Amino acid sequence: MKKLLLGFLLLLVGCTQQSDTVEWHMPTPYSDGVFHTQNILHFVEDVETLTEGKFIIHVHSGASVFKHPEIKRAVRSAQVPIGEILISLLGNEDPLFQVDVLPLLATNYDQAQKLWMISRQEIEKVLAQQNLQLLYAVPWPPQGLYVKREINNLDDISGLKIRAYNAMLSRLVQLMGGIPTTVESPEIAQAFSTGVIDAMMTSPSTGVSSQSWDYVSHYYDFQAWIPKNMVIVNKKAFERLEPSLQNKLLQAAQEAEQRGWAMSEKETAEKTQILMDHGIQVMKPSQELSEQLAQIRQQMAQEWEQKAGELGKRILESYNNAQQQLISQNSH
Fold first, then answer.
1. Is residue 279 left, alpha or beta, with left meaning phi > 0 and alpha meaning psi from -120 to 50?
2. Phi, psi of 28, deg, nearest 5
3. Least confident stretch, 7-16, 73-82, 109-118
């Protein structure tokens, strides 16, 4: 009842304009300590500064108002004018939202940036059809495999119960020979201690926050994919803003995206070092495992292309061509 009342109050004041001041309310799924939320707090400070206090955004972090899967719907229905969500969480709506979690496609930040530049406009088109507008997107650190022993090939992974948090990861685990198992982040430690899972594929950030050194010994830095969060606004709410406020909001968003990518890279380096400091062996996959994973990458890209249709085919072709050009340039 308390949550329903708070939601009703936000519906009333989520986008208000009294005198010369606009006030928005913004739900986010993560706590204040997560770098994505820290970047958002910086973003809203920039908005207020750039508009000389005429535009104020109140951040409600930690899924305190809407649960993560509810945020997009809340923004679309104008319960709140702005919110943050993991892009791949929307994969069931449209395969386009899964492009950044295609395993082993973009395995470093430069590649992830290229893939984002190629796919961004198409994602914006899909959002626009739903009365939504993209402000910016920021990646998480790359995803790797946490296990209790050394892994040299897929035979060593066969039969392991591996934590999976979306459909794409579940499919990857299946193709690797593992058993996909759903476990929420706060339950990771208990799941390992009770034998619910034997391994997990996640970022250095989650590896540190879940104190993975208490139950695993190896971290394989696959850099399997680099998923992104996006900040979206209700399109009609945006259009109701004065042009000067629209421009300042977009300016702050552009700066937030640039800052967020840098924060993500820093987060990756710092959290990977913490894993090492706590005794976890940070490893690269063996040549044999890399070759096996490359075959899985090709199969999953083909499966995704079939779901995404002609648009998916064009995105993959554009990305692969950009990669080939880079390889060609570096070889000269």
1. left
2. -135, 155
3. 7-16
- Written as one letter, the residue type at 60 is H
pTM above 0.85, yes or no: yes
What H or E segment, with its residue span, contains residue 252? helix 243-277
pLDDT in tens, 2-15: 454 454 445 444 45
Residue 104 and residue 293 in contact, taking contact as beta carbons nearer than 8 Å: yes
Q: Give the length of the chain.
A: 332
Q: What residues have CB less than 8 Å from 233, skipping those under 6 apart?
A: 75, 81, 82, 132, 133, 135, 249
Helix (H, G, I), strand (E, B) or coil at 290: helix
- Which of 314, 300, 283 has its CA nearest to residue 152? 283
Is there a contact between 153 and 236 (Cβ–Cβ < 8 Å)?
A: no
For residue 9, the Cα-to-chain-centroid distance in whole angstroms is 29
Query: Would you state the structure tokens that stand for residue 128, as one six-digit string?
Result: 């626009």
Exposure string for 66-80, b = 16+ CB within 10 A, e = fewer: bebebbbebbbeebb
For 264-276, the pLDDT digits (tens) are 999 999 999 999 9
What local confidence, expressed as pLDDT, does residue 330 receive? Answer: 66
pLDDT, average across residues 118-138: 97
